[in-house]
Amino acid sequence: MGPGDQEFLAGKTIEVIKMADAVVGYKSYVKLIENLVENKKVVSSGMKQEQKRAEKAIELANEGKNVVVVSSGDPGIYGMAGLLLELTPPNLEVEIIPGITAASAAASILGAPLINDFAVVSLSDLLTPWELINKRLNAAGQGDFAIVLYNPRSQGRREQIEWACEILLKYKDPKTPVGIVRNAKRGETKAVITTLGKMLQEEIDMLTTVIIGNSDTRIINGKMVTARGYK
Amino acid sequence: MGPGDQEFLAGKTIEVIKMADAVVGYKSYVKLIENLVENKKVVSSGMKQEQKRAEKAIELANEGKNVVVVSSGDPGIYGMAGLLLELTPPNLEVEIIPGITAASAAASILGAPLINDFAVVSLSDLLTPWELINKRLNAAGQGDFAIVLYNPRSQGRREQIEWACEILLKYKDPKTPVGIVRNAKRGETKAVITTLGKMLQEEIDMLTTVIIGNSDTRIINGKMVTARGYK
C-alpha cells in the first residue's frame, strides 16, 4: 500500500483492491483504504494476529474468492508477503504487488540520505533474537552504511534504540546526521534532523523511522544528504 | 518513477509530471513516460550526464519554470535526488517524490527475500572506490544480511560481480538462494532463482538486480522466501 497517503498508491494497487472479493489486513491499514473497500468482505484484526490473518485469507481463497491482503509500506519488507508464501498451499496463486517502503518515504522527507549503500534493520526482537540484531548493527556500523531502523521502539520495547545508538557510536562520529520521521507520508508527518550523539533526546515510537547517515552524510540547506562522489 | 511500468507510478508522481512546465531526465527513463510529457519542454540526455541534467533543471527553475527531474526506481536510492540537493541554491524549493525502488520490484517477483533485515550495495565503482564496496560486502556477509546488488555489471565493468560472489562465499553457504531479475516490472521481466555457488553461470548485466538470501532464505513452491521467525 505504500506509506499510507492514498496519493502514493500505485495504479496497480488500486486496481487489485478494486477487483478483490475480500480484503484482509491489520485494522489501521484497512482504515487507510476504507473508501476503496466498500461493498467488499473485510477481515481486519490487531497486531500479532498476522498468522491468523494469513490463514483467513487462505481459507477465503480456497472458497474461490479473489483475496487481497494489505500491508503498509512494501509488503515484502517486514510485511505480510513472506508469511503468506510460507503458509499458502501450492494450489493457490499468490501475486506480490510492491509498494513504496517506509525507508523511501522517510528518506524523501529528510532529503537524500540513502543515495548510496544502506542497510535496513528492524529493532523488534519479537521474531528475531537480539543477538542477531546486535550482530547486524555492528556489521552495518563497520561497513559505514547509512542505516535505516524500522520498529525502533514500542510501548513494551523501550531500550533497543538505546542499545542500537550505543553500538553505532563505536563506529560512527557522534556528529553523524540522523533523521527521525514519524508517520512518513501518512497524515501528519513529523520530521527532525539531529545527530547520533543527540538522537535519544527526540521522541521515538513505533510509528517512527530512524535514518542514520554514513561518513559522507551532510546537512545542505536543511536537508540530510549523503554525498555520492559527484564533481 | 518506480520500476518503469506505468501501473506502478503513484498518483502523486503522475500529478507532478502533469503539472510540470519542463521534464528533465535520462533518455531511457523519459521514454517510459512519453505519453505524460507531450506539449512539455523535455530535456533528456545519456548516461554520465547526471550533473549537466541537474544544472539544466536548476537553470530552468531559475527562469521560473516548474521542473520535474525523473529517476527510475526511487530517486533517493542511487537516483537524482542527492545530486540535485547538492547543487540547488537555497532560493529554489526541491520536493522529492519517493518511488518503488528496484529492490522492492525485484523482490516481489522472486517472492519475499527481503522480509527481514537487508543491505543494498551498488557494485559500480565509478563514484565509490572499490575498497569501500569491498568493505561493505564483507560487513553485509558477516551480518548475515539478505543483500541486494544494484549495478552488478556493465559493458565496461565485468569483474565486480565475480569479486562480490567470492567475498560473500566466505560467509554464506554456496547453496544460499540467489534471485536474478532483469527489467523488474519494466516491460519484459526475466527472473531466475539459483544459488550463490552457481549464480555466475547466469546472464547478469546493467538492467539486472541480484538478491542474495540470508541463512533463513528458502525456496517454497518455487518462490524465494526469507523466513522471519513466525510459528
TrEMBL record, chains A, B:
It comes from the Bacteria. It is an enzyme of class 2 (transferase). The keyword Nucleotide-binding does not apply. GO terms for biological process: cobalamin biosynthetic process; methylation. Residues 1-198 form the Tetrapyrrole methylase domain. Pfam families: TP_methylase (PF00590). InterPro entries: 4pyrrol_Mease, 4pyrrol_Methylase_sf, 4pyrrole_Mease_sub1, 4pyrrole_Mease_sub2, Cbl_synth_CobJ/CibH_dom, Precorrin_MeTrfase. Its EC number is 2.1.1.272. Pathway: Cofactor biosynthesis; adenosylcobalamin biosynthesis. GO terms for molecular function: methyltransferase activity. Keywords: Cobalamin biosynthesis, Methyltransferase, S-adenosyl-L-methionine, Transferase. NCBIfam families: cobJ_cbiH. This is Cobalt-precorrin-3 C(17)-methyltransferase. The lineage of its organism: Bacteria, Bacillati, Bacillota, Clostridia, Eubacteriales.
